[in-house]
Amino acid sequence: MTADHWHPSATIEALRQRAALLAKIRHFFYQRQVLEVEVPVLSQRATSDPHIESITAEYSGVSTYLATSPEFGLKRLLAAGIGDCYSLGKAFRQGEAGRRHNPEFTLLEWYRCGWDDRRLMLEVAELLGLLLGISRVQTLSYRALFLRELQLDPHSASDKELAACVRRTIALSFIPADRDECLDLLMSHRLEPAMGEGITLLHDFPAHQAALAKVVADEQGTPVARRFEAYVGGLELANGYWELTDSAEQLRRFQADLQYRRTRGRPTPPFDERLLLALQAGMPECAGVALGVDRLMMLAGGYGSIEEVIAFPIARA
User: Is 108:308 a contact under the CB 8 Å cutoff?
Assistant: First the structure.
């Protein structure tokens, strides 16, 4: 530890810019009568998502977890009748540290009652355009992007065809574990860099990547996840869903996540039964999205590292 390690990694000017950005976000939702709410960041339950790991803590001798997002708390409030709402606060994820990641980060998440993913995508683009001064927006389906750049249909291609595409286009020192990893590698290494400047709204993901989104047949009759991601210059900023409201299907997905984790020797934390109860009680039809504020700040201020936009990253915390 050096003598100046007490000092923030971000400049005072960057922290002032950050405060102004947060104020603009809150004003955006105030104008639209979307209510800011707070939900716990310390919980008795963890995420079951196979691609995200919760950070554990202990309270009164009981294992607890730092929230990876405010999603479950917000959905419980939706089921209680709060209406359109958002959270702007801290979230935590295990093992995520680097130029674009810190295990403690700021997440904006909001829900619109009666909306679907298509309508929410437009609001995401409006917010990003306002904060980043960007007017160019392209909207593409997941299939259209794969066909445009790789001449491959990600929904109908076989596992062997996807693996062959990875080998042909990406230099790797390992063999991808499964179909999902092939798709993720192609997205991160080949497709994100090809998105170009401006805002890209990517929608209709493969059904097996639905997470907590509805699965609906597209215009070609293919079951797709009504999920979207928003990128700026190939950098992912937001992930949104036309939200699943079926408690039985939600339970099935929780159980499938845990089975996936077991087969790979991963932790199997308890999932949130309270969310299932909220869905049973009747969560309204809605769309929701989570947006990474630290990455947004990097783009807004022209910074190259997350350490330049937060006061005390994990190395200095």
Answer: no
Q: CA 295, CA 10: separation in Å to the nearest integer? A: 14
**Residue 193: Cβ within 10 Å count:** 11
Per residue in 266-280, pLDDT (tens digit) is: 999 999 999 999 999
Find residue 140's DSSP bridge partners. Answer: 202
pTM for this prediction: 0.95
- Under 8 Å between Cβ of 199 and 123: no
Hey, what amino acid is at 54? S
Name the β-bridge partners of 55: 66
Q: Is 139 exposed, middle or buried (0-12, 13-18, 19+ CB in 10 A)?
A: middle
Return the closest-CA partner of residue 138 out of 233, 239, 238.
233
Helices and strands, counts by H and E, the chain:
9, 12
Task: Look up tokens 């609906």; give the residue.
Answer: 216
Q: Are strands 215-217 and 223-232 parallel, antiparallel or unpaired?
A: antiparallel
